[in-house]
Design a protein that fits this description.
It is built from ten helices and ten strands. By secondary structure, it is an alpha/beta fold.
């Protein structure tokens, strides 16, 4: 049985899930089906990925009951605001052909570059999520790519503290300040791009640690994320890698090796910053 983390709203979520960014058409559908049939129960998508319908079809075709699946999707930054959020959520729900979403996240916060009153925009957006949760259409609500300043402002008006903050977190760029703030405020961190866009495979330190544990470099990095008490959602379209990524629960990294990985120099950083979008799109 895969370990689960209890969110601040009482719902449970697996420590490892399956990402679907760039998972399109038949290949994407097959990847999700393979993931579900091999033990993954947390599936992550987003409206901007353009594959919510593909994920829905994969869930339908898989052998896994809907009740066992924790499905995440996200509100894109073009739809921030109270009414826009309600409409965008319903569109996602329709594409997914579901009665409820397990975890719904604000994909990127409003910022001062794009909104004169960014604090109010985030507050209005969050109020819409709170109401959708009250209506039973969302089990858990959270955010993505929120820094401490965005969260502190949100706390001023929020009736519900975010359950999750999904951020870029991988060897070479793991945002310890944001992570520490969230964990102190009972917000679970979830890692996107855990394999640093493939840069980890070029790193000699990680290669040596992988040999030590008789594991792959990707397995070492995923285990490192989980041992920071963080959820991780790797993505892959190949069955071998899908199986490899979930085979990380039979070993533990030593505290020394965790510290070594913590200190690796920057690598694989996306360049995405919550206060500067839309400089780069993802």
């Amino acid at each position: 049985m895969m370990k689960k983390i209890i969110l601040n709203d009482g719902h449970k979520i697996p420590v490892l899930g399956f990402g679907t960014y760039k998972s399109m058409q038949a290949e994407g559908e097959n990847a999700v089906i393979n993931a579900l049939n091999r033990g993954y129960r947390l599936i992550d998508t987003a409206s901007i990925y353009g594959n919510e319908s593909i994920v829905a079809e994969a869930i339908k075709k898989s052998e896994v009951p809907r009740s066992e699946i924790i499905l995440t999707t996200k509100l894109w930054r073009d739809n921030l605001g109270y009414q826009q959020t309600k409409e965008a959520f319903q569109a996602s729900l329709d594409r997914l052909k579901l009665e409820y979403i397990d975890l719904y996240l604000i994909h990127w916060p409003a910022n001062k570059k794009n909104y004169e009153n960014w604090q109010q925009v985030n507050a209005d957006t969050w109020r819409a999520l709170e109401e959708l949760q009250e209506d039973g259409k969302i089990r858990s609500i959270g955010v993505s790519n929120f820094w401490q300043t965005h969260l502190e402002e949100l706390f001023q008006t929020a009736r519900v503290i975010p359950a999750v903050n999904q951020i870029e977190f991988h060897p070479g760029y793991w945002q310890p300040e944001v992570t520490d703030f969230c964990q102190k405020n009972n917000i679970v961190i979830e890692s996107w791009a855990p394999l640093a866009r493939g840069k980890i495979f070029e790193n000699e330190v990680l290669q040596k640690i992988a040999v030590k544990y008789n594991k792959s470099v990707s397995q070492i990095c995923l285990r490192w994320v989980i041992q920071h008490d963080i959820i991780v959602i790797p993505k892959s379209s190949t069955l071998q890698r899908i199986e490899e990524n979930i085979d990380i629960f039979d070993f533990n990294l030593s505290e020394e090796d965790i510290r070594i990985i913590d200190k690796l120099p920057q690598m694989g950083f996306s360049g995405e910053l919550p206060d500067l979008w839309p400089e780069i799109l993802i």
